[in-house]
């Protein structure tokens, strides 16, 4: 595996996985000694947070679309049917109430 992928896998393991207490202690020591590793961890945490927020926003949009589909005015088909019936029977239409 490429070194970059191994590094990312290691970050994800410690951020998302379930390291043992000994692994966690070693990881904390490495973070103290390696500022680049600490910066990478912080960046990865920001990325996870951004993905979480983006997922929530997408879910809100999808729920809003479902709400619109379920609760939009349903009388448009009825109005169209009545208008076609009036047209077929040649009755004058009453003005729509607004």
Topology:
Layout: H1 3-16, H2 21-33, H3 35-71, H4 76-89
Helix pairs in contact: 2-3
Describe this protein's structure.
This protein is mainly α. It has one domain (3-89). It contains 4 helices and no strands. The model has no long low-confidence stretch (mean pLDDT 87).
Pick out its properties.
0% strand, 4 helices, single chain, 98 residues, mainly alpha
State Rg: 30 Å
> Strand percentage, roughly?
under 5%
Order of helices and strands: HHHH
Spans of at least 5 consecutive residues with low confidence: none
**Overall pLDDT metric:** 87
User: What's the number of helices?
Assistant: 4
Termini separation (Å)? 67 Å
Number of E-state strands: 0
Derived from helix and strand composition plus strand pairing, the structural class reads mainly alpha
Strand count, sense and barrel status of the largest sheet are: none
- What's the domain count? 1
**Helix content estimate:** over 70%
Shape: rod-shaped
In short:
The protein is an all-alpha fold and 98 residues long.
